[in-house]
Amino acid sequence: MELEDIRREYTKGGLRRKDLLSDPIDQFNFWLQQAIDAKLTDPTAMTVATVDETGQPYQRIVLLKHCDQDGFVFYTNLGSRKAQHIEHNAKVSLHFPWHSLERQVNVIGVAEKLSAMENMKYFTSRPKESQIAALASKQSSRISARGVLEGKFLELKQKFANGEIPVPSFWGGYRIRPTSIEFWQGGENRLHDRFLYSQEANQWDIDRLAP
């Protein structure tokens, strides 16, 4: 089969203006809960897009860890490539692909670092193996072999076998404060439904976009 022959119809019923909540964060959390209830694989997985100093965009998938009226939160190594990009250009795009629900959410916003208290609260809630992995890995750096990483992990696991693991100074979170959020619902005959929430003067305007 040729790639151009791969297609399917979208039949979930579409999305209407009357169905939308007035606040996009409330609407997002409503859709997220439906994705969780539908038992989607990794419903909190999102693509984070950043841009380097030359204008080259990069994307990677991370997990959303919190969402409220202040924005969307994820955690990473603060020396990673994405963190270096954000240091240079804090404008970030997020994308949530909920394929089986025929839905997508796109977020455009500005990244800001979380406080040390917020970082510590989340870090200490993680499984111990995840804490050790964060300490062992210098994210995005080149390594000669996987064995180097595994060796460091085992060394730290033994070191902290009976003690608390300190929050690494190079690890933390970002909050993406949204300036616009788009909700996409698949529609029959490729007449998809798209609604864009844009922030104007501390309120959200809603526009329907052509598919």
From TrEMBL:
<feature type="binding site">
    <location>
        <position position="82"/>
    </location>
    <ligand>
        <name>FMN</name>
    </ligand>
</feature>
<feature type="binding site">
    <location>
        <begin position="139"/>
        <end position="140"/>
    </location>
    <ligand>
        <name>FMN</name>
    </ligand>
</feature>
<dbReference type="Pfam" id="PF10590">
    <property type="entry name" value="PNP_phzG_C"/>
</dbReference>
<feature type="binding site">
    <location>
        <position position="65"/>
    </location>
    <ligand>
        <name>substrate</name>
    </ligand>
</feature>
<feature type="binding site">
    <location>
        <position position="126"/>
    </location>
    <ligand>
        <name>substrate</name>
    </ligand>
</feature>
<keyword id="KW-0664">Pyridoxine biosynthesis</keyword>
<feature type="binding site">
    <location>
        <position position="81"/>
    </location>
    <ligand>
        <name>FMN</name>
    </ligand>
</feature>
<feature type="binding site">
    <location>
        <position position="130"/>
    </location>
    <ligand>
        <name>substrate</name>
    </ligand>
</feature>
<feature type="binding site">
    <location>
        <begin position="190"/>
        <end position="192"/>
    </location>
    <ligand>
        <name>substrate</name>
    </ligand>
</feature>
<feature type="binding site">
    <location>
        <position position="104"/>
    </location>
    <ligand>
        <name>FMN</name>
    </ligand>
</feature>
<feature type="domain" description="Pyridoxamine 5'-phosphate oxidase N-terminal">
    <location>
        <begin position="32"/>
        <end position="158"/>
    </location>
</feature>
<keyword id="KW-0288">FMN</keyword>
<comment type="similarity">
    <text>Belongs to the pyridoxamine 5'-phosphate oxidase family.</text>
</comment>
<dbReference type="InterPro" id="IPR011576">
    <property type="entry name" value="Pyridox_Oxase_N"/>
</dbReference>
<feature type="binding site">
    <location>
        <begin position="60"/>
        <end position="65"/>
    </location>
    <ligand>
        <name>FMN</name>
    </ligand>
</feature>
<dbReference type="InterPro" id="IPR019740">
    <property type="entry name" value="Pyridox_Oxase_CS"/>
</dbReference>
<comment type="subunit">
    <text>Homodimer.</text>
</comment>
<comment type="pathway">
    <text>Cofactor metabolism; pyridoxal 5'-phosphate salvage; pyridoxal 5'-phosphate from pyridoxine 5'-phosphate: step 1/1.</text>
</comment>
<protein>
    <recommendedName>
        <fullName>Pyridoxine/pyridoxamine 5'-phosphate oxidase</fullName>
        <ecNumber>1.4.3.5</ecNumber>
    </recommendedName>
</protein>
<dbReference type="Pfam" id="PF01243">
    <property type="entry name" value="PNPOx_N"/>
</dbReference>
<feature type="binding site">
    <location>
        <position position="184"/>
    </location>
    <ligand>
        <name>FMN</name>
    </ligand>
</feature>
<keyword id="KW-0285">Flavoprotein</keyword>
<feature type="binding site">
    <location>
        <position position="122"/>
    </location>
    <ligand>
        <name>substrate</name>
    </ligand>
</feature>
<dbReference type="InterPro" id="IPR019576">
    <property type="entry name" value="Pyridoxamine_oxidase_dimer_C"/>
</dbReference>
<keyword id="KW-0560">Oxidoreductase</keyword>
<feature type="domain" description="Pyridoxine 5'-phosphate oxidase dimerisation C-terminal">
    <location>
        <begin position="171"/>
        <end position="211"/>
    </location>
</feature>
<comment type="pathway">
    <text>Cofactor metabolism; pyridoxal 5'-phosphate salvage; pyridoxal 5'-phosphate from pyridoxamine 5'-phosphate: step 1/1.</text>
</comment>
<feature type="binding site">
    <location>
        <position position="194"/>
    </location>
    <ligand>
        <name>FMN</name>
    </ligand>
</feature>
<dbReference type="InterPro" id="IPR012349">
    <property type="entry name" value="Split_barrel_FMN-bd"/>
</dbReference>
<comment type="function">
    <text>Catalyzes the oxidation of either pyridoxine 5'-phosphate (PNP) or pyridoxamine 5'-phosphate (PMP) into pyridoxal 5'-phosphate (PLP).</text>
</comment>
<feature type="binding site">
    <location>
        <begin position="75"/>
        <end position="76"/>
    </location>
    <ligand>
        <name>FMN</name>
    </ligand>
</feature>
<dbReference type="InterPro" id="IPR000659">
    <property type="entry name" value="Pyridox_Oxase"/>
</dbReference>
